[in-house]
Amino acid sequence: MRKAALALALVAASLVVLPACKRASPAPKPNPLRQAYGTQQDWNNPGHLFPLDYQQTQGKRIFYEKCVWCHADSTPAGPSNRSNLNPTPPLINDGATLNPLSDAYLENVITLGGAAMGKSAIMPPWGRTLTQEDIRALVAYIRAVAQPPYQRPAQPGPRYSTR
Ligand code: HEC
């Protein structure tokens, strides 16, 4: 009889305890870096990484081949040419300067160069060196690393704008 009572007590106890174990712990916050294809270190804050998708990672690769020499303060080879140029090219993460410009404008200035867009001719045209896909990837990368962060407009602007 004592055994039966003990078994009953154990069953009763497990009914009280087990549901408590089942209570779900709050879901862990998804970490965007876990799903990312690549990353870019934040130039303003080395402890911060921007997650990059595939296209943005292609843009990063092209940026570090073709653009880093004028659009960054340091390069894989050491110093950059940026401080020698007048006008000084915007840093590629300069959201204050680049966020207001539309995707269409950025594609145009990269494809056609500064002179064609009424800007300095020091900004070369890339339309014969890079494919349109490359240039779209560069724009995607520019948007991904912008500080302050780029907010895509709710209503896409006109396809062709001068700014
Ligand atoms: C030889 C130096 C040089 C290289 C290399 C270069 N740029 Fe530039 N870029 C400039 C200069 C100078 C300006 C500023 C033009 C002005 O404000 O008149 C500029 C401006 C820009 C702008 C801003 C245009 C605007 O209207 O404010 C973007 C975007 C840009 N470059 C993208 C790129 C990309 C992408 C690459 C690589 C494919 C690249 N640049 C390579 C010199 C360069």
CATH topology: Cytochrome Bc1 Complex, Chain D, domain 2
Give me the side-by-side strand order of the main sheet.
Answer: 1-2
Name of the CATH architecture:
Orthogonal Bundle
* Number of helices in the DSSP assignment: 6
What is the tally of beta strands?
A: 4
Fraction in helix: 40-55%
Write out the CATH superfamily name: Cytochrome c-like domain
Largest sheet: 2 strands, antiparallel
Oligomer description: single chain
Computed over alpha carbons, the radius of gyration is: 26 Å
Shape: elongated
Strand content is: 5-15%
Number of domains: 1
State the separation between the terminal residues, measured CA to CA: 89 Å
Give me the strand/helix succession: HHEEHEEHHH
- The CATH class is Mainly Alpha
Topology:
Blueprint: H1 2-22, H2 32-35, E1 38-42, E2 45-52, H3 54-71, E3 74-75, E4 78-79, H4 95-98, H5 103-112, H6 132-145
Antiparallel strand pairs: 1-2, 3-4
Helix pairs in contact: 3-6, 5-6
Bound molecules: heme C.
Heme C binds near residues 71 and 126.
Overview of the molecule:
Helices cover 44% and strands 10% of the residues. It has 163 residues and is mainly alpha-helical. α3 (54-71) crosses α6 and α5 packs across α6. The chain is elongated, with a radius of gyration of 26 Å. The model has no long low-confidence stretch (mean pLDDT 89). The structure holds heme C. Heme C binds at residues 66-67, 69-71, 85, 87, 89-90, 106, 109-110, 114, 119-120, 122-124, 126, 138.
